[in-house]
């Protein structure tokens, strides 16, 4: 193939990008998004603060701009993210206990219902595990409603949109470590007890080197019987950037259940990592060496 999306499709996978609705009127940006990628995800527009700014009052205006861009251009659509400790609307930040649990489950149900049949994979719960060596849950208002909040969210999402793959998504899971093992143990438990989970998202916000167990980590999740998706890939600029992008691509292609890769923005100037130039296109929209290395990795073999 001659584009990332077409080349990934030849390998039975997708290659996606995070889109900001406010940038779609920039034709350099939207042309790259349309041409190169076959899946998109909203960078912010489907989050809780964006979709339910007041309790029970849902606003899908900006989320629909992303969904309509996908539909109009024939792109797959990922959903990000139904529940997260960050980017909660103020009213939710101020709730706790049963009131928060009920509001959270209602949120999952309403948003997943709104996009039923349109989303190939939902990040149902985002970033619920703590960093560091403990391997346990992150403290948050959601966690304080009870350890079963994650499975309750997955059950609600399944009921609302039975066709979507339901993912748990997190960062600092770029190899076999305490955090990724904590998640691994949760997924194994969910599979054993019939909690509906279909995929794990490895965000992959990477620095200037890649963990030597990156592929092994993908493989161990796949061996649990879930798909793996690389969901927010970006790599700090440095001598090794192109190699790291290629290594991640090869690692995904090497695992049958690694079904797609999403980069977290179009151009370096669109990235949340200001000054790190972590993406595949430069600020002018030119293809970087990292782009070419990913394309070649997708087309190898
Ligand atoms: O839209 C407002 C604007 O009106 C206001 O003037 C401005 C002032 O701060 O803020 C703008 O909102 C910002 C929004 O991005 C849109 O640009 C928020 O402040 C800012 O916090 C928000 O950052 C997003 C971040 O999540 C929030 O946690 C980033 O764009 C987004 O890339 C980032 O994405 C996350 C994933 O969802 C989860 N994994 C980590 C990843 C990187 O942090």
UniProtKB/TrEMBL annotation:
GO terms for biological process: xylan catabolic process. The active site is at 232 (nucleophile). It is an enzyme of class 3 (hydrolase). Its EC number is 3.2.1.8. Residues 1-297 form the GH10 domain. It catalyses: Endohydrolysis of (1->4)-beta-D-xylosidic linkages in xylans. Keywords: Carbohydrate metabolism, Glycosidase, Hydrolase, Polysaccharide degradation, Signal, Xylan degradation. GO terms for molecular function: endo-1,4-beta-xylanase activity; polysaccharide binding. Belongs to the glycosyl hydrolase 10 (cellulase F) family. This is Beta-xylanase. It comes from Paractinoplanes rishiriensis.
